[in-house]
Write a structure and sequence with these properties.
Helix 1 (55-67) packs parallel to helix 2 (86-94). It is built from 10 helices and 12 strands. Strands 7-8-9-6-5-4-3-2-1-10-11-12 form a 12-stranded mixed sheet. It has helices spanning 55-67, 86-94, 111-121, 135-142, 147-159, 180-189, 217-225, 290-296, 301-311, 333-336; strands at residues 23-27, 72-76, 101-106, 125-129, 166-170, 193-197, 231-232, 242-245, 252-256, 269-272, 277-279, 287-289. The chain has one domain (23-336): TIM Barrel, CATH 3.20.20. 47% of the residues are buried. Strand 3 (101-106), helix 3 (111-121) and strand 4 (125-129) form a beta-alpha-beta unit. It is of the alpha/beta class. It starts with 22 loop residues before the first strand and ends with a helix. The structure holds S-adenosylmethionine and iron/sulfur cluster (SF4). Residues 32, 34-36, 39-40, 77-79, 107, 129, 333-334 line the site of iron/sulfur cluster.
Length: 338
Amino acid sequence: MYSDPAVPTAPRLLDRFGRHVTYVRLSVTDRCDFRCVYCMSEDMIFLPRAQILTLEEIAELGRAFVELGVRKIRITGGEPLVRKNVLWLLQELGGLPDLRELVLTTNGSQLEKLAPALKDAGVKRINISLDSLQAERFRRITRVGDLDKVLRGIRAAQTAGFGRLKLNAVILKNRNHDEVVDLARFALANGMDISYIEEMPLGTIGDHDRAEAYYSSNQIRADLEQHFTLLPTAETTGGPSRYYRIPGYGSRIGFISPHSHNFCGTCNRVRVTAEGRLLLCLGQEHSVDLRQVLRAHPGDRERLRQAIIRAMEIKPQGHDFNLQAQPVILRHMNLTGG
Ligand code: SAM
Ligand code: SF4
């Protein structure tokens, strides 16, 4: 049985395979100010507002999960920092005494103005997506993003006192694979961790053939090993990254490898989409409609908790991503909550 050291007492959320769920990713919006080519199609249709959970509903979900033994919540999206009043939600969750870690994944576009407020709200760590250090290429990958603004956001987060930031880089063959080493150098020089991510087949994107653009973690590691010594470590931040260290540096180099190294056996996570669908697995459709529970029985936290506990019975053993086939998972990553 996989036992999560973060759970000191009897776990409340236990699935059929003995995995303890202690980590929830909450997507607070499907909207975004970027249109990254691996995440979205160019002409996305976003959800009507009434279908999106209110911030109060999301806070209620957070409270219920923490009462059920969840100790880490990641706020994500879409771009979480474009959701109006998201700071209110972060303050609510940041104040929950039993929550150990409130963390955030962002594209960095709003950090320049929001970093100090995020710190004050109780956000412990921030992951920032950065796929290129070349302005024009950055724009091509994000379709609209401004690299300088993101770099200023990164500096603002450091100035606000966020310790070791983590960069997330999705690596695509012939788009940015030649920047693997430059991105590592940037992370090392700025005292940040970096995780390289293999692209996952979520939704139809139109931009490229995902099989053709596949660049494996093994290839990335081989590229890095031309320049650095990578020592494997058993460290974990409670997520799917496998970490390495480079002697002489404080940074961790991580690999998120859904294709080449399946991480399902130790999965401790579930996700809630912006419309309140509890997703039991990133790569499967098994889900429970928590918005229905929240809206049919407002304020009935026990009913909400029971719905979450029952959902553990349908958490699948693992994903079965296949880059050669048409995507089976039709929802895009912005809806899923990465
Ligand atoms: N907008 C924020 C951001 O970009 O960091 C948060 C949401 S985004 C969906 C979360 C993470 O998912 C990002 O690091 C992004 O690069 C990654 N991502 C998006 N689509 C992906 C895909 N198809 N495969 C792998 N990672 C993906
Ligand atoms: Fe937006 Fe993040 Fe998706 Fe890029 S990866 S389009 S920044 S949600």
